[in-house]
Amino acid sequence: MKKIITFLAIAGLFTLQSCTTSGSFEIDPIPVATSEVFEVTTSFNSTNNYSRLITLNPPIYSSDVVLVYRLSGITPQGSDIWKLLPETHYFANGTLDFGYDYDYTATDISVFMVGNDLQSVSTNYRLNQVLRIVITPASFSKTIDKNNINAVMSALNVDKSQIKKIDL
Fold first, then answer.
1. For the whole model, what pTM was predicted?
2. Fewer CB within 10 A of the end CB, N or C, for the chain?
3. Which residue blocks in the chain are alpha helix, DSSP H?
4. Is 50 inside a domain boundary?
């Protein structure tokens, strides 16, 4: 019985590999996962229920990870300050004032605000918010500092010229 199983295993190896004209065997390469970075400017208000749905085309793989960052300011030297969502802001007494969060499926990303009185949140936090959406293979997200967008972009070998703008 062991000889039959061994024979079938060897026969399977030969049939599952592609043959070249030189008689050597080669295995078809596995597709290399790529990352994408999108940028969108949006506003959160009562008209859109303080949320924005961003459609992905084409859909992402189920093994991909989506990271969303919000441009929260600029340093005195002119560098962007990006915060990874979820992002939460508290009152001085420690209770929730408001925050940003997101969820995603294979076909879309929903970015939304949370809080008790979103209408009272300053327009600086609601209007013309710039978001960066990074879609990355799960294997990368385990090895990089996700809180640092510059580290993420560097690890994925993505520069600013490769960021795709989405018009809503």
1. 0.76
2. N
3. 2-16, 123-126, 138-141, 149-155
4. yes
